[in-house]
Design a protein that fits this description.
Layout (H helix, E strand, L loop, with lengths): L9 E3 L7 H27 L6 H32 L18 H8 L5 E6 L5 H13 L6 H20 L3 E6 L4 H9 L10 E5 L6 E3 L1 H4 E5 L11 E6 L1 H12 L5 E6 L9 H8 L3 E6 L13 E5 L7 H12 L7 E5 L8 H9 L2 E3 L3 E4 L5 E2 L2 E9 L14 E3 L5 E3 L7 E8 L4 E4 L19 E11 L5 E9 L3 H4 L10 H12 L19 H4 L2 H33 L1
Parallel strand pairs: 2-3, 8-9, 8-10, 10-11, 11-21
Antiparallel strand pairs: 1-3, 2-4, 4-5, 6-7, 12-17, 13-19, 14-15, 15-16, 15-18, 18-20, 20-21
Helix pairs in contact: 1-2, 4-5
């Protein structure tokens, strides 16, 4: 391999790291150059080139002023070069500030006191161009306007501002053909890394945040002429600021969340993979195996009920409700996994109904053959719901699960509770009897329906200081979201949705920092110009400025001529 710049595998975009010795040497060289300049000026004055005092009076002062101006320019140039390596000195002249970070974000980044590394999959050189190409190849993005193409360059510019505002943030681009990337992908083998993906890590915790294309860009589906499986998409907004700052907040959090698994009502332990996932994400897990739960400590942030085979008695339901209420302070969560093979649980289902989660009986079958595993209509693909006001499913694809119970959002018992579907089946699903054979077909078209597979229910209120308080119930229609082998497939979002819901229930990601997605319009400076503005610009630059320069030149010439 040739030793040239093209073979550099990792390119840092953080503030240039210079040792104290190098800084000192650079400063001494600068002072030496300035000193030599003044010595030359002094030698000129001492030489025979200045023949008389009148010549010195006429030209000496001008020479000194010229030398001082040159020296000042050198100093300013050196200072600007030094400062630009450490601070953000750019000015965003765009009307919508499309390349600028929000003030709230800047203040948060400046106050960060932990080391953060943002690793970007891909070499920095021509990154935006390659990203645009990969967007079209990997994600079916159609680039039909200049604005859509500009989003990728905008991403590079916005990311570069993070280390400019805080040198504890290091951004590095890693060539995916390099040995460095091989080491990174080996370390994070549980993540499928594509070009343009970002890994955010910190010395503050062991958490890792993986940002993918749909985390960074908002996309919308193209026209309806596209086929169902080969739809075209377009980029409609850049949300890298929200995604990256939220990721930094996540990995720098030193707050270890505590969850309790209520295992006393479950005959089968379906939580091993779940507990392993939570442990890898900085959770402290406690198992409560009591057959009769009499108390749940408020030290826990959330509780987990997985595939219960015996119902909870009334007093236990009261204990769970009290935990979620938390003496009026809320701030707690419940994560529930159903299982179609489990018996009826009227008391627990009644509690869930109060939270807007209706759980039925039976087993879901997918009648659309392209959306279920061959020979197993109960093993189907389920899909995220696009939400306007919540980003919990942002960037997620589909999941595969089995033994799903019929579940849907219903009217909660209180106006303070809102229930929202996060993932759903297709509209080609029916309810089959539990234990039905794979060839069961005792249904009509009227039985086809769409079911909610993951539901988020939130109870919220404001305290006396106008702070929003919330408790959550996150309900999954099958434990197979996390228990089955499908959870290990990196192409599926099984683990992603389970972890995201648990994080929400345990208030891992609580932050008041919110940002507006960057939208690039088609408007340009020229589009904003009227004929009067065009005339004004033409007069200023083609007439007034040249006249002023000529007038100043004539004035200087006349003054010098009269001085002789």
């Amino acid at each position: 391999m040739e030793n040239n710049k093209e073979n550099i595998e990792i390119i840092e975009t953080s503030a240039e790291v210079i040792t104290e010795e190098e800084k000192s040497s650079s400063f001494k060289d600068f002072l030496s150059k300035i000193g030599n300049l003044f010595k030359k000026i002094a030698n000129i004055f001492k030489s025979d080139k200045i023949k008389n005092e009148n010549l010195f009076k006429k030209g000496g002062y001008s020479l000194i002023i010229t030398a001082l101006v040159l020296a000042a320019l050198i100093v300013v140039n050196w200072l600007m070069s030094a400062l630009s390596a450490r601070f953000n000195l750019e000015f965003d002249m765009t009307t919508d500030k499309k390349n600028s970070m929000s003030e709230e974000n800047i203040e948060y980044i400046k106050g960060l006191d932990a080391d953060v590394t943002v690793t970007i999959c891909g070499a920095e050189k021509n990154f935006a161009d390659y990203m645009m190409s990969y967007a079209q190849q990997l994600y079916g993005i159609t680039i039909s306007t200049t604005a859509e193409a500009e989003y990728f360059d905008q991403t590079v510019k916005l990311i570069a501002k993070y280390p400019a505002y805080n040198d504890r943030i290091t951004v590095k681009y890693v060539d995916m053909q390099s040995t460095e990337f091989t080491a990174i992908s080996t370390t994070h083998s549980d993540k499928k890394l594509n070009f343009g993906d970002m890994l955010v890590t910190s010395n503050a915790s062991e958490r890792v945040k993986h940002l993918q294309f749909t985390d960074i860009y908002a996309i919308s589906e193209g026209d309806s002429s596209s086929s169902y499986y080969y739809s075209s998409y377009s980029v409609t907004a850049n949300r890298v600021e929200t995604a990256l700052t939220s990721a930094i907040a996540y990995v720098t959090s030193t707050d270890t969340k505590k969850v309790a698994v209520l295992s006393g009502h479950s005959s089968n332990d379906y939580t091993e993979a779940y507990k392993e996932l939570l442990g890898a994400n900085n959770y402290e897990i406690t198992e409560i195996s009591d057959k009769l739960v009499s108390e749940i400590s408020n030290e826990f942030d959330a509780i987990i009920i997985s595939a219960p085979t015996t119902d909870f008695v009334d007093t236990e339901i009261d204990v769970i409700s009290a935990f979620l209420e938390n003496d009026g302070k809320l701030g707690k969560g419940l994560v529930y996994f159903a299982d179609a093979t489990c018996p009826s649980l009227p008391n627990l289902n009644s509690l869930l109904t109060q939270w807007g989660v209706e759980v039925g009986t039976g087993l879901l079958f997918e009648t659309y053959s392209s959306n279920h595993i061959q020979g197993s209509p109960s093993t189907m693909g389920v899909y995220p719901v696009e939400l306007e006001d919540d980003d919990i499913t942002s960037g997620m694809g589909y999941a595969i699960a089995n033994y799903l119970v019929p579940m849907n959002v219903c009217e909660p018992s209180s106006s303070s509770i809102t229930a929202t579907a996060l993932m759903q089946t297709l509209e080609t699903t029916v309810v089959a009897p539990v234990g039905a054979a794979a060839d069961w077909a005792d249904y009509t078209d009227d039985d086809l329906k769409q079911f909610d597979c993951v539901i988020m229910s939130e109870q919220s209120k404001y305290d006396d200081d106008n702070n929003l308080l919330s408790s959550y119930v996150m309900a999954f229609s099958s434990v197979e979201f996390i228990q089955s082998t499908w959870a290990s497939y990196l192409d599926l979002c099984n683990q992603d949705i389970v972890l995201a819901c648990t994080d929400r229930a345990a208030h891992v990601d609580d932050t008041t920092i919110t940002f507006t997605s960057k939208v690039i319009s088609e408007e340009s400076f020229s589009a904003d110009l009227t004929q009067s503005k065009v005339t004004a610009v033409r007069v200023i630059f083609m007439i007034l400025i040249p006249i002023v320069i000529i007038a100043l030149g004539i004035a200087v010439f006349v003054r010098r001529r009269n001085a002789q």
